[in-house]
Amino acid sequence: MADWAGFRETAGRRVGGFGRVALGDADGVRRAAVVLCVAERDGELGVLVIKRANRGRNPGQWALPGGRAEDGETLQETGLRELREELGLEIAEADVLGMLDDFPAASGFAITPVVAVAQGAGEPVPDAREVRSVHHVPLRVLAADGAVNWVDRPDGGRLLQMRLGPGMTIHAPTGAMLWQFREVVLLGRDVRVADLIQPDWTRN
Questions:
Q1: What is the CA radius of gyration of the chain?
Q2: Is the dihedral of CA 176, 203, 67, 138 positive or negative?
Q3: Distance of CA 204 to the CA centre of its chain
Q4: Which residue from 79, 141, 150 is spatially nearest to 116, judged by alpha carbons?
Q5: CB atoms within 10 A of CB 152
Q6: Yes or no: is domain 4-137 CATH 3.90.79.10?
Q7: Tell me: the pLDDT tens digits for 132-169?
Q8: Which residue in 48, 45, 90 sits closest to 65, CA to CA?
Q9: Residue 71: left if φ>0, alpha if ψ -120 to 50, beta else—which one?
Q10: pLDDT at position 204, please?
Q11: Residue 84: pLDDT over 60
Q12: Each residue of 182-199: pLDDT tens digit?
């Protein structure tokens, strides 16, 4: 059986002690939130990753459940609403462990990652209008050495790839948030992600 109590205690302490970087509401910056949702499958804890529907925003791309903030919402409320709308999962505010760094996406959104647990929330039921498929990535896979790959670019930069399974290579911004979750929450390290390179095809 999954060690929910142990994960909640460790993850809550690490996220709570992490001095996250929050971006200001500058002119032209749109706000969004995603959820790094930890769920159980076959007795193992993992993060839920989705593949977007073939039509709509970011068609066919790997993503975390989430979307644009609506007027009057906190970013935590945005994340939980989007999780409910996209995957049918109801999570209480008490199941939110905290937030990681805002990510300045090239699309013009400042994305806030919300770390939460879906203990007892049941199986996700994806909304086919927005989600093609749902994938449970075990925490042991995310924490493994082979999950992180850096690609040297001709311009001298390095491109992050999160390699989480066959055909599952994820770049920034989603890959950046998964990497920070891995480093901060799973491994207890302090890393920043705002300057990670985003492939051109993510800029929409």
A1: 16
A2: negative
A3: 18
A4: 79
A5: 9
A6: yes
A7: 999 999 999 999 999 999 999 888 788 999 999 999 99
A8: 48
A9: beta
A10: 55
A11: yes
A12: 999 999 999 999 999 998
Measure Cα distances from 8 to 80, 94, 143 in Å.
Answer: 18, 11, 17
- State the Cα–Cα distance between residues 144 and 170, nearest whole angstrom: 15
DSSP 83: H
Return the structure tokens found at 86.
């996209």
Residues 6 or more apart whose Cβ sits within 8 Å of residue 183: 189, 190, 191
> For residues 94 and 78, what is the distance between their CA atoms, to the nearest angstrom?
15
- Tokens matching residue 99: 């937030």
Contact (Cβ atoms closer than 8 angstroms) between residue 100 and residue 181: yes
120: its two tokens = 């007892």
> Does this model's pTM top 0.90?
yes
Neighbour order of strands in the sheet with 148-152: 148-152, 158-163, 169-170
How many angstroms from the chain centroid is the CA of residue 195? 17
33-65 tens-digit pLDDT: 999 999 999 999 999 999 999 776 666 899 999
